[in-house]
Structure formats: structure tokens, C-alpha cells
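QA checklist item 7 of 12: single-chain prediction sanity check.
[x] sequence parsed
[x] length recorded as 217
[x] structure emitted
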Amino acid sequence: MKKVHFLVEGQTEESFVKRALRPHLSPRGVWANPVIITTKRTKRGPDFRGGVASYKHVRKDIQRLLGDTSATLVTTLIDFYGLPHSFPGRLEASGSPQAKVAFVEQAFSDDIANNRFFPCLSLHEFEALLFSSPADIARALHNRDKESQLAAIRRTFPTPEDINDNPPTIPSRRIVNHFPNYNKGLFGAIIALRIGLQRMREECPHFSAWISQLEAV
């Protein structure tokens, strides 16, 4: 079994890797191990984890995971939205969302400079995957009357990954506008599991390409 470390942004992504990606990859001989980003280390007590406070913290975690010589690969599941400007390539990235994320991922990879590192940045955030199925969002949040409104948002964009990254209009904000009770930690992974990897891959090409690479490890 080949071990792959996933450096993830928070508990939702951790749960998603354990409950969706691990069962999918395990029959292919890949063991998915999620690790939440360390935002602050303490001498006593547990470290603080979750979120991307700075590139420095992300880089240290990646180097630490690469230090595990038993791991075949280290990858990431981090939102492109809200990346600190200290991230490699973030200020220089331009063009379409796909072009921007490809540029930053390449700059990220170049900075780490290790052939066992394969980064993935979510376009534009985890909740974009949920727009693969507006119906499942509405059902999980117990208001199917909102399905048509979410579907209208989805139809505005070529793919869920194109839903724009301005603070008022990012995917999570669009969900909260219709479902004020939406909480990523409570509902994010649950909705994703209801949708399933196949539907998300059909709708989200950048995400699907990443999964394809992991399947080929």
C-alpha cells in the first residue's frame, strides 16, 4: 500500500479525505492520510491547527511530511480563495481561474522542489464541489424549495469551479445567503458524501484531474 499525505485546510477537508477519498483510493493501493495545517506550535499542549495563516506554516508542514520517507507522495487540499499573498505566484497569477490556479500550483511545486510533492488548490474553495449538485445541498439543509435558486447560480458558470472568488460571491457565501444555518464544519463533508466523487468529477475538471493523478500513484 502506497501512503499519500494530504495537507488539508481544516476538519471538513480532513473528513472528506477520510470518508470519500480514502475508500476510493484504497482499492487502488493508495492509503490517504489527511493532516490539518499547523498554524501555531506550542511547547506545552496541542498545536493550533486549521486555516492558512501564512505560507511559512504551510511550507514547514510540507517539508515535515516529505521527511517521512515511507510516504510515496505529499499533496494538498487547500482553498485557492483567500491564499496569503506570500504564497508563491499568488500576486503574479492572471487570466482565467484555471490559469491562475495552475500558475500558483506550479510556483508552489517549484518552491518545494521535491518530486514527491504534488499540490492541489481548490477552485475557488471546497464549497464549489457542492455546487456539483444543488439538489443535494437543498436536501441536506432541509429546504428543497431553495434548489431552483442554487441551480440558477450553477447555470451562470461553465463549471462549479468557475464560481467567482470575491468575498460576497464565493461559493460558501452563496450557500449561506440561502441557508443561514449552513456551517462548513457541520455540513460540508456530509453534502459532499451525498453527492459522491463521480458527480463532482463530472462537474469539476480541475478536481477530477487531481484525483486521476492520485489514482495513478
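[x] summary fact logged: The longest helix spans residues 97-112.
[ ] second reviewer sign-off
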